[in-house]
């Protein structure tokens, strides 16, 4: 990783929360969680949330989707601290646990959870085969891996526009194609793999974000980071929209079941 320190420090958490809602470091809020989970019953189930960030998603899984127990995992301390505050504020400390972990194997026993969930975080985990094997290992038979993630449409060399975007984003992304995900999931033993391309949603949402960053709210964003940093964010959004429009940047929802 080229960065020193946390990618998601307190200032960036505050910036992203203003953009995407309290506790959220990704777009779409509760609606995107609901879409990822559509038709899956979490009532009383044990869920692990990989890359829990500031905890908005993690809390929601317990509060409105009925999970009995949620274990939020993240590799950075500031987001874990923010998530713990959010859990305490929601009065859910008895059901939701936040753990700071090292990148690598999931710190969970075999067949110990009913669902592996993740929202827009596993883009940071480059080895998708390893990720799929780990998700499969910790799931109980019959359990689901349900996630949203930021994907690239192909396995070849990224186009110059995509390279420009990835350099602007500078978040140590390891994007995979839908095909690579399907192979990783099937290779780990998952069945019933379904994927949904969320590019159309992102094309709209990212334009709305850009309009806010450049519009009357700009002064409020400037207070959370700094004017040069907001300029940099605007440049990132402006490099992202063309690769969304071309379809090369194609966030997806996916789900897969462990047989059992
Ligand atoms: C874009 S944020 C999304 C956070 C949250 N899921 C949400 O939607 O608000 C990505 C998160 O992934 C975390 N992350 C990065 N590498 C990770 C890894 N190897 N394991 C778990 N989390 C990781 C980051 O620290 C960050 O909190």
From TrEMBL:
**Locate the Methyltransferase domain: which residues?**
47-143
CDD domains attached to this UniProt entry: AdoMet_MTases (cd02440)
Query: Which pathway is this protein engaged in?
Result: Phospholipid metabolism; Lipid metabolism
Task: Supply the name of the protein.
Answer: Methyltransferase domain-containing protein
Named from the GO MF annotations, one term is: phosphoethanolamine N-methyltransferase activity
Keywords assigned by UniProt, alphabetized? Methyltransferase, Transferase
* Entry-linked InterPro entries: Methyltransf_25 (IPR041698), SAM-dependent_MTases_sf (IPR029063)
**Any one GO BP annotation for this protein:** methylation
Organism classification: Bacteria, Pseudomonadati, Pseudomonadota, Alphaproteobacteria, Rhodobacterales
Q: Carries keyword Translocase?
A: no
One Pfam family recorded for the sequence: Methyltransf_25
From the UniProt record, list the reaction(s) this protein catalyses: phosphoethanolamine + S-adenosyl-L-methionine = N-methylethanolamine phosphate + S-adenosyl-L-homocysteine + H(+)
């Amino acid at each position: 990783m080229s960065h020193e320190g946390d990618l998601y420090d307190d200032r960036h958490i505050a910036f992203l929360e203003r953009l995407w809602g309290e506790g959220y470091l990704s777009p779409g809020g509760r609606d995107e969680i609901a879409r990822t989970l559509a038709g899956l019953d979490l009532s009383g189930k044990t869920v692990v949330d990989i890359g829990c960030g500031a905890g908005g998603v993690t809390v929601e899984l317990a509060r409105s989707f009925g999970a009995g127990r949620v274990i939020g995992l993240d590799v950075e301390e500031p987001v874990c601290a923010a998530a713990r505050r959010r859990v305490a504020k929601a009065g859910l400390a008895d059901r939701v646990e936040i753990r700071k972990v090292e990148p690598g194997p999931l710190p969970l026993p075999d067949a110990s959870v009913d669902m592996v969930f993740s929202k827009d975080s596993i883009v940071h985990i480059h080895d998708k085969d390893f990720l799929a094997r780990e998700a499969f290992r910790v799931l109980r038979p019959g359990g689901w891996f349900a996630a949203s993630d930021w994907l690239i449409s192909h396995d070849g060399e990224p186009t110059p526009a995509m390279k420009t975007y990835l350099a602007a984003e500078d978040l140590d992304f390891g994007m995979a194609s839908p095909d690579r995900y399907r192979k990783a999931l099937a290779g780990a033993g998952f069945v019933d793999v379904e994927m949904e391309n969320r590019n159309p949603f992102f094309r709209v949402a990212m334009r709305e974000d850009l309009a806010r960053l450049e519009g009357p709210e700009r002064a409020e964003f400037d207070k959370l980071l700094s004017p040069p940093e907001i300029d940099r964010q605007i440049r990132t959004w402006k490099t992202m929209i063309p690769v969304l429009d071309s379809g090369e940047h194609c966030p997806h929802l996916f789900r897969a079941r462990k047989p059992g």
